[in-house]
TrEMBL record:
Keyword Glycosyltransferase: no
Organism taxonomic ancestry: Bacteria, Bacillati, Actinomycetota, Actinomycetes, Propionibacteriales
Signal peptide: none
Alphabetically ordered keywords of this record: DNA-binding, Transcription, Transcription regulation
Protein name: Regulatory LuxR family protein
Domain HTH luxR-type: residue ranges: 354-419
GO biological process: regulation of DNA-templated transcription
PROSITE patterns assigned to the protein according to its UniProt record, in alphabetical order: HTH_LUXR_1, HTH_LUXR_2
One GO MF term attached to the UniProt entry: DNA binding
Length: 420
């Protein structure tokens, strides 16, 4: 067990002992080794490169068994690799103080989450970060030793399963949010509220059945205006009985769009709207679509507090979009609100090799990278661009992923070598 007075030799000896054991015991050994350094009730990991069992948790049995990938995916997409994050998040149905440590030593990253007893700052988080980077590298290399076709198949199955589970969860959340809006509305009497709640529940069940028969047919096409109308109808139902005003900006054309892209766009927008509704206060949400025949761009804006940490679950959506060659770009401006821009391509075809490695970055990401290359820290970049520091962290994580580098220094060097 590591103590708070450990030295480098003790750290290396502990890491070697953990790696020497069976692969399926690494997390258990890691938890035991850090029990005194960072007291915790349980520890969970999300290693998204592992398709069969991406989520593992050890510790108090009831708590460890209840932890799911949905609990951790938001942290994977939000916490910056190499920068341990402490806070409180919902896990296993309750709010817990946590220490989250992300690593980019695998292509799709990994995150270890310590579910702690209290919010006392963890002074030795940097040492634990170094160990987690080492374990992530080791576990990723173990996955590469599997037979390639089997690995690809299990990854595809796992991704499909995760997508379906996430979409069902979001659909259920939308129905529940609508029901709560009715039941909390003081202007509706009890009898009317019960009647409306029954109707909404029946409509929600019918919509789920329709989605399974209609939205999952990915080979068909429909006019983009009609596809947007279906999104508008679902959002109006979601917000009808609450205080939030919905503004809609329909597509400027009626070109045909594939059912698969339209479905993904509706799911993504609904995810963002549900996340925005968790903020207080939000009084207006504006949703727009633009479709040029090859790319669907969705924009969702609110007038909330403009703090990215208030919508941490959007990190899960960003990860899902990235796996399907989509993109989520967030701008949180304190006092002005949050803007989410979602990009989805018409088909997931192999991307041509870019002569300019920076060509994959969006405008805001280029602005962040330019200042990062000048040696600015996150707080300075946030002040300069008038966005929140958590938004900067989100952009930096996306920049490292898109440039296929692991550190800020490497990203800065690539910028200096490429930018004119």
């Amino acid at each position: 067990m590591l103590t708070k007075s450990l030295d480098a030799a003790e750290l290396l000896a502990a890491a070697a002992q953990i790696l020497d054991g069976p692969a399926d015991e690494i997390l258990t050994r890691f938890s035991a080794a850090t029990a005194e350094l960072i007291p915790h009730r349980a520890i969970a990991q999300l290693a998204s490169q592992c398709a069969a069992t991406p989520v593992t948790a050890v510790g108090e049995p009831a708590l460890a068994k209840a932890i799911t990938g949905a609990d951790l995916a938001g942290l994977l997409g939000t916490v910056t690799a190499g920068q341990p994050w402490q806070g409180v998040v919902p896990i296993a149905g309750s709010i817990h103080p946590v220490l989250a440590i992300a690593s980019d030593r695998a292509p799709r990253g990994s995150v270890a989450v310590f579910i702690r007893y209290d919010e006392t700052p963890a002074a030795e988080a940097g040492l634990v970060q170094a160990m987690w980077d080492l374990f992530t590298t080791h576990m990723y290399r173990l996955t590469l030793e599997q037979e390639p076709s089997h690995l690809a198949q299990t990854r595809a199955v796992a991704q499909a399963r995760n997508d379906v589970a996430a979409e069902l969860g979001e659909a259920h959340a939308a129905t529940l949010a609508t029901l709560l809006g009715v039941l909390r509305n003081q202007r509706i009497d009890d009898t009317s509220a019960r009647s409306m709640a029954v109707d909404l529940a029946l409509n929600g069940l019918a919509e789920l059945r329709n989605d399974s028969q209609r939205d999952r047919v990915l080979s068909g096409e429909e006019p983009v205006g009609k596809a947007f109308d279906r999104l508008a109808d679902s959002l109006r139902a979601l917000l009808r009985h609450g205080p939030v005003e919905l503004e809609l900006d329909a597509p400027g054309n009626d070109r045909l769009i594939s059912a698969g892209v339209a479905h993904a766009g509706r799911v993504a927008v609904r995810s963002v709207v549900l996340a925005m509704l968790t903020q207080d206060p939000v009084r207006r949400i504006r949703v727009g679509w633009r479709w040029d025949g090859t790319e669907l761009q969705s924009t969702v804006r609110d007038d909330g507090p403009g703090r990215l940490e208030d919508v941490l679950d959007l990190g899960q959506l960003a990860e899902r979009l990235r796996l399907h060659e989509g993109d989520l770009d967030l701008d949180a401006v304190p006092g002005w609100g949050l803007t989410a821009r979602i990009t989805l391509k018409a088909h997931a075809s192999p991307q041509p090799i870019q002569s300019d490695p920076l060509a994959t970055l969006g405008t805001r990401e280029l602005e962040v990278l330019e200042r990062l290359a000048q040696g600015h820290r996150n707080r300075s970049i946030a002040d300069d661009l008038h966005i929140s520091e958590s938004t900067v962290k989100f952009h930096v994580a996306n920049i490292l992923t898109k440039l296929a580098v692991t550190t800020r220094t490497q990203a800065a060097a690539l910028y200096h070598a490429t930018a004119v």
